[in-house]
Amino acid sequence: MPTYITLMKLTDQGIKSIKSAPQRVEAARKVIEGAGGKMPNFYLTTGEYDYVAITEFPSDESAMAFLLGLGALGNVRTMTLRAFTEKEFAAMVKKLP
After folding, report:
1. What is the CATH number of the domain that holds 9?
2. Residues 6 or more apart from 80 whose CB is under 8 A from it?
């Protein structure tokens, strides 16, 4: 299953309702699982981004559908990176001429 790293910044709305953020994370986890994916890791971080989530989805389309819905809620702005495992990376390199 493809892996994604999502970097998130809280919006004004998101920080105003920060006390309910843990429940929002759990709700997101359930939506991801309902789409056939999983969120093995979620972090509150210091620095430029407030949260980092590692997720897996069956397809890019299912990942994007989730991310569009997440953005529409208005609590976070996201930047998502498609991540490749070390094994996937090695397989790509083997195909190079």
Report:
1. 3.30.70.920
2. 4, 5, 6, 7, 63, 67
The domain containing residue 20 runs over which residues?
3-94
Q: What is the mean pLDDT of residues 68-87?
A: 97
pLDDT digits (tens, 9 = 90+) for 15-43: 999 999 999 999 999 999 999 999 999 99
d(CA 92, CA 97): 11
DSSP assignment string, 12-47: HHHHHTGGGHHHHHHHHHHHHHHTT-EEEEEEE-SS
Q: Residue length, the chain?
A: 97
> What phi and psi, each to the nearest 5 degrees, are found at residue 83?
-110, 145
The two counts, helices (H) then strands (E), for the chain are 4, 4
Total domains present in the chain: 1
Q: What is the pTM of this model?
A: 0.91
